[in-house]
Amino acid sequence: MFDVIVLGKGPAGIQAAVYIKRANLNVLVIGKDGGALAKTDKVGNYYGFTQISGLELLEAGYAQAKALGIELIEEEVIGINYMGDFNVTTTTNQYIAKTVILATGSPRASVRIPNLKELEGRGVSYCAICDAFFYRKKIVGVLGHGDYAAQEAHELVNVAEQVIVFTNGLEPSGHFDERVKFVKTKVKKIIGTDRLQAVQLEDDSEVEVSGLFIALGSASATDLALKIGALVENNKIIVDEKQMTNVPGLFAAGDCTPGIMQIAKAVGDGCVAGLEAIAFVRKNP
Ligand SMILES: Cc1cc2nc3c(=O)[nH]c(=O)nc-3n(C[C@H](O)[C@H](O)[C@H](O)COP(=O)(O)OP(=O)(O)OC[C@H]3O[C@@H](n4cnc5c(N)ncnc54)[C@H](O)[C@@H]3O)c2cc1C
After folding, report:
1. Domains plus CATH for the chain?
2. Which pTM does this prediction carry?
């Protein structure tokens, strides 16, 4: 059991972990890659550096974490839930903590498939664990191809009549339950007016489904937040002045929260989230 698990090893996550470790708490940082900084060529507006590359800044953060003895692991997080403590599921492991800080960066832009947005909440869902119950004995779809899609399909397969995984032109790469059916043709649009009725494919054929669960790529911060009942608005996680979400003990920091998307802001958020997570653990040992 960790005091705090930080999801994301970008500037927000590492900064939070630095404060937590220095307060002598037990912290685990989980990240799957270099995040936004790895895509940043030159940074010239961050305190203390006239110019530095994103990778150099990232490596400096990892080196600082390592020097402090922070446990930093490279795994993809696919789920989170709360049962007295926070349970974090990655593609290979499960971890438990008293508090969690979501710092997994900017949620990706939602996929552009005609009519998908219009049917959100009316058949189109982003959380199998939340909504599977509504699709008992029905035919449902999952849009995605990796381990995150496999996890969403896994939540549905014992409840629904049939789970169809729409890979949108890609080969399945996740560890899928053998009961799912795959449709590999690209998706053209979503059919339905008041409620979702079918998925139309590029060859104009239609596959009838009552529900469609979106699980493209890996789980974003907002996907994870929604799974645990945290408020999300305009694709960002809503936090208070302590960087805490509406779920006690669940914090969020950096690009996944509202406001400017800059390293300085991510580091500031990480500092606040780290200090407030420390206070939370000490108050709720
Ligand atoms: C091209 C580009 C140029 C930029 N230039 C500048 C600049 O000059 N100055 C500036 O201040 N800012 C710049 N930014 C913005 C800056 O990089 C971000 O604001 C900052 O990195 C945000 O930090 P973060 O910790 O919130 O998220 P990120 O740095 O994106 O880190 C997110 C972390 O979450 C992890 N993660 C995500 N999903 C999962 C999952 N499912 N499981 C496990 N881990 C996960 C990632 O692996 C990563 O470790 C730029 C961004 C880009 C893309």
Report:
1. 2-108+219-283 (3.50.50.60), 117-214 (3.50.50.60)
2. 0.87
Q: Is the CB of 31 under 6 A from ligand 1?
A: yes
Query: What tokens does 143 get?
Result: 């849009």
**Residue corresponding to tokens 């189109």:** 124
Q: How far is CA 256 from CA 104, 252, 259, 270, in A?
A: 7, 7, 9, 11
CA of 9 to the centre of ligand 1 (A): 9
With a 6 Å cutoff on the Cβ, whether 211 touches ligand 1 is no
pLDDT tens-digit profile of 122-164?
Answer: 999 888 887 888 899 999 999 999 998 999 999 999 999 999 9
Name which of 271, 264, 254 is nearest 105 in CA terms: 254
262 lines ligand 1 (CB under 6 A): yes
- d(CA 154, CA 203) in angstroms, rounded, equals 28
Nearest CA to ligand 1 atom 27: 105
Close Cβ partners of 234 (under 8 Å, ≥ 6 residues apart):
258
For ligand 1, say whether the CB of 10 is within 6 Å of any of its atoms. Answer: yes
